[in-house]
Fold:
Amino acid sequence: MKDVAALARVSLKTVSRVINDEPTVNVELAARVRQAAEQLRYQPNFGASALRRRDGRSSTIGVLLEDLSNPFSATIFRTVEEVANQRSVSVLGGSLDESPGRERQLTTSLSRHRVDGVIIVPASHDHQYLRQEQEAGTPFVFVDRPPSLLRADQVRSNSREGTAVAVRHLIEVGHRRIGYLGDASTIFTAQERRWGYLDALERAGISADDAIVVQDLRTIDAACDTVSRILRSKNPPTAFFTGQNLLTMGAVRALRGAAMQHEIALVGFDDFLMADLLEPAVTVVAQDVAAMGREAARILFQRIDGDRSEPYRVVIPTELITRGSGEIPPAR
Amino acid sequence: MKDVAALARVSLKTVSRVINDEPTVNVELAARVRQAAEQLRYQPNFGASALRRRDGRSSTIGVLLEDLSNPFSATIFRTVEEVANQRSVSVLGGSLDESPGRERQLTTSLSRHRVDGVIIVPASHDHQYLRQEQEAGTPFVFVDRPPSLLRADQVRSNSREGTAVAVRHLIEVGHRRIGYLGDASTIFTAQERRWGYLDALERAGISADDAIVVQDLRTIDAACDTVSRILRSKNPPTAFFTGQNLLTMGAVRALRGAAMQHEIALVGFDDFLMADLLEPAVTVVAQDVAAMGREAARILFQRIDGDRSEPYRVVIPTELITRGSGEIPPAR
DNA sequence: CTGAAAGCGCTTACAG
DNA sequence: CTGAAAGCGCTTACAG
Structure:
C-alpha cells in the first residue's frame, strides 16, 4: 500500500479510500491510485485491515462438520460456500469425526483466526465453553444437532417424525416385526430416529424387541454384519429400518448376501446416489441437506449483520420416497 | 495480550514469549502468565501475529477444488485437512465449478488472506497470473490437472494408461466395438482418458468410430440419454467405457432402462460407493484419491518449509477392479 | 476532498 | 532472563 501511494503520489489514506470504494475521492486521483495498484499488482491485506477496523471483520467464517468426505457434510459445506461467496467471505472447513476434543481444538483455532461466525455440526454435548466467544460477538449456528447448555440458532431435519412416517409406512404394508439399525447413541439425530421408530411401533400397538434394535453402528461393514446376524437368528424381522446412509448400504449388502433382498423390506434414512438403481430400488426418507446448509448460512449472515433476536430454531421437513424396497410385504 | 500482561504484572514481550513457547522464560513468570491467560480466556490473534512476524505465516492454506460436493473433491479436501491439522494449520476451501473466472476470484481472495500455500484442481488453462504470487513465496500444488504456462508441482493419476488398460481388458473379453463417453474436452483428464481409449483401440488394430465416441458429457442424465440414443442406433457397440463417475452411473441407468445391463459390457473410470452392489456389479478403473490428496499436502508443506527444488511431478497409479460388468462377452 | 498522526495486537531488534 | 521502543499494513479520528 505504501508503494502504491508513492507511485500514485498520494497519501496512504487516499489509497485506503480508493481500495475501500469510499465515494469521497477525486476521480482523477482514484484513477491514478487504481493504475498504480494494478501496476504493482497490489493485493490488500485482509488481516491487517481487520486488525484496525472498527468491526474487526476478517471476511472469514468457519464450518465445522462431522466428516467432509461424507456426502452430508460435503453438501452443507458446498451450500454454505455458495452463500458466503456472494459476500466475498472465505470459508474455513474442518471435520470433527464425532470427537469433542477435536471440536475444542478447531473452535479454538477458528477463534484465533477471528472468524466472523461459525456453522457447526457439533460432536460434544456441552457448549458452554462457547459462551464467552458468543457474547464477544461471534455467532454460532448449529446444524443437524442442537446446542447443549448454550442458547444458539439451530437448523435441523425432523428426524423423529420422518422416521415415524417411514416405520408407519412399513406397518401399513403389513409388517409387525421391524428391525432397527442406528448410529452412535450419543448422536442427537440417532436418538431422535430411534424415538421415531418407537413412536410408530407404539402407535400400532407393537412392542419393541431389543433383539432386533441395534444401535452404535457406524459403518457399512458393521451394518452388514449386524443384519446378517439378525437374519440368521431364531425370529428374524420381515423388514428393516436403517437410521443412516451407510447403514442402509450395509443392509443392502447383507440382504443381497443372503439373497433376501426381494423378501425383506427396507427403508433407510437419508437418500443416496444410486439408491434408485439397486434391485430393488431403495425406499428412503430424504432430507433436504442443501436447504439445511442454505438456511444455516442465511441465519449466520443475518447475525453477522447485526440481528440480535431470540435464537432461531428451523426444522426442515423430510420426505418419504417409495421406490420398491419399502413396499415388499411380509412373507407370512 | 495487554490485559494478560497487566494481570500477570509482566511486560507484553514476556507474554509473547510464553505464548510462543520460547524457552528463555523464568518458570515462575511463565506460570503467572499462563494463569492470567487462562483467567482472561486469552486467545492469541493469528492475524496480528502474522502481520509482524518475519515469515509472515498465517497458518492457513487454501484448497481450491472442482466441486466440494462431489466425492473426488471432498476426499481431497479431507486428506489435506488431515495433514494440515497435524501442523495446526487451517484450511480455506472453495469450489471452482470449472469456471476460470471463479478460479481468478478465489485465488485472489486466498492471496488477500495471505495463505501460506495453495492446493488447486484448476479450471483455467493459463496460470501465468499466479507467477508473481508464486515468486513472492506462495507455493502452488496442482492436483489432477497440470499447471499451464507455469512451473509448479503436480500430483495426478495415470489416466491415460489406466484407461488403456481398461479398454484393452474389454478387447480381451472379445469386444471390437466399444463406445466411449467423456467429460468436457477442456478438462485435462478427459483428454487423457480419450487418448488412452484411442491408444488401446489402435494397439488392437481397431479404428475409432465417432458415432460412438461422445465427449462433453457432464451429468448422470446426459450420459443416460446418450447411451440410450446410441443403443437405439443402427450399429450399437457391445461395450462402453465411461470416463468419469457420473457418466458411469448414467450408463448403468440407461442399460437398465433398456434391460441390456447383462448383455452390454461396461467399465467406468473412478470407483464409486455401491458399484459393487449393482447388478451386474460395475468394473472400474479406481484412482487412489486419498493418496493424491496426501501427496499434494505433503509436497505443499515441504515447500512451505523451504524446499526450493525443481517442480515435483507425482503420478499415482490406477487399478482395474473387475466386478462383472466389464467381463460380459459380446453377444455376437 | 486530502493528509499527518495515532493505534489495532502482535513480534523484532536491541539494550540492560 | 526481561523489558521499552519501533514497526508490520492497515483504518480511525481528526485537522485543514
Remarks:
- The radius of gyration of chain A is 26 Å.
- The domain at 159-288+320-327 of chain A is CATH 3.40.50.2300 (Rossmann fold).
